[in-house]
Amino acid sequence: MTNMAQPAAVHIGATPSFHTQPLLSGLIDVPGLAYRVSATRTIDECTMKALRGELDVAEMSLATFVKARERDDSLVGLPVFARKLVSQYAFCREGSELSGHKSLAGRRVAVPQYWLTAALWHRWYLGMHGVDTAGVVWCPLADDRLAGMSYPEGVQIDWSLKGRGPADVLRSGDADCFIFARRPLDMTGLRYLSPDPAGEALALARQTGVVPVTHVIAVRAALLRERPGLAGALVELYTRALHHAAQEVAHEAAQFLPLGDLEQDRTRAALGEHWNEYGWKHSEPALRVFCEAAVAQGMVREVDVDHAFLRLEP
């Protein structure tokens, strides 16, 4: 009898986090799916390795994925997304008169990169608060991840702060606000832009029905054509990893977040039991909002959502 060759193990790239640790440790299995995982230090590294074809499957910045799809269709997105309540991550100096996104009209706003996923979400929030983003002076602290990015006419971009840190540009007064998807490491002399960042973030999510998507799991399209059933197996793999992480996250974080279990309960009560679930049904509303924002802000001409992402459920 001839032995049939087994498919090569799928090469997955993952940045260490609660939702990827079960994969990095090899704890999660799906029948018929062989995989190996390479840890990457940052989402930038993981994203760029995916774009260079060094990984079969990788967690990528959503904005970079959307732009990459405009250039070619070599990658396809699974309905496996990382989410964050992005609106809370806006900061200013202590003593500033600023209060909330609505107060940023005409201000100097620092961003890690202009076309960062979080920056697109924050500009969407500004629009919701009636702020004309063309009237804001945008101050990127680094070049955009992808070379050759264009910027819309009429947008004010000041590159003079490039290379500096967010806390530095805020404390010095060279920027009025800094927005991102996490807070500066050193908050000395700084504060949140909103007087109630948690309450406002939850209210926005309930009002819009959107919990922002920040990362997507992308797969080489050629590999999916070669291996029917692989996409479904990968969604199942990531879903099992997510459920394991949800059960263990409060225990793992207890040294720093001793009320983690109670906080998870509060979050589910505020956002719904399935707010963080994978699958197309749970992800489509936020995904379409983001893609519409990417077009409206001029990052891409259009996004064919129904072909860029697979409509699968766990």
TrEMBL record:
Source domain of life: Bacteria
Report the SUPFAM superfamilies cross-referenced here.
Periplasmic binding protein-like II
Full protein name: 4,5-dihydroxyphthalate decarboxylase
Q: What is the species of this protein?
A: Pigmentiphaga daeguensis
